[in-house]
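User: Predict the complex with S-adenosylmethionine.
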Amino acid sequence: MTLRATISTPEGKRRYVRRLFATIADRYDFITAFLSYGQDRRWKRRLIELAGFEPHDAVLDLACGTGDLLLSATRACRLAVGLDVTHRMVELARQREREEGVPRVRLVTGDMAALPLQAARFTVVTTGYGLRNVPDLPAALEEIHRVLAPGGRVLSLDFNRPANAVVRAVYLAYLTIVGSVLGLVLHGDADTYRYIPESIRLYPGAAGVARLMEQAGFSGVRVVPLLGGLMAIHTASRAR
Ligand SMILES: C[S@@+](CC[C@H](N)C(=O)[O-])C[C@H]1O[C@@H](n2cnc3c(N)ncnc32)[C@H](O)[C@@H]1O
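Assistant: Here is the predicted structure with S-adenosylmethionine placed in the model:
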């Protein structure tokens, strides 16, 4: 079965994504810096700026990976919880937390579409490249809405799916070539990073995600374009 066919069903995508991130976890930070030409740091700093963390905030970072956004939140806020479905990512985030001597981090292995967390517990939910990986995006947005306190805000950084067909074709072809070479060199499997363009193909894009956020009950949904619109940050709030 092709990669595209495998991830085009919710169950197929769920299984593929879990296996993929368990395989790449130990190389994730290097790959992210390499594929983004070092821009990932800048995009995350922008998200943190937009989040405007306050000392009283209780932050939940979903799909926390090795903990970039989580550790920034924990330095600024009274509570920060990171959640990721890949246990190895959670271990790496914990290791970093110890190395950097950051206090107050809580880490949970779990699925962002079925959060093992109390309703209305957080004032901010963040996620970096999380929403695109979830097989059931409306379910994940409902869960984010549920765990946010009234007035709480959500911020998500991810790739966009360019609306212009020519731009999209060139962009996806570029990611496919670079991803295939990198997958072959690092893992002996060209599909490993071809997952990125394939997941973008199936993704509703920044405008589609904004609509889904509104349908999930969020207000003030805003899309902040990055890299000429190839990437985007969504911000929105839960009504008071
Ligand atoms: C591309 S990484 C992003 C990591 C980190 N947020 C960052 O920005 O560097 C995507 C992360 O999503 C996690 N993930 C995928 N599906 C998930 C799900 N359903 N629930 C929670 N985490 C998930 C993966 O394990 C992986 O760590």
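The chain is about 50% helix and 20% strand.
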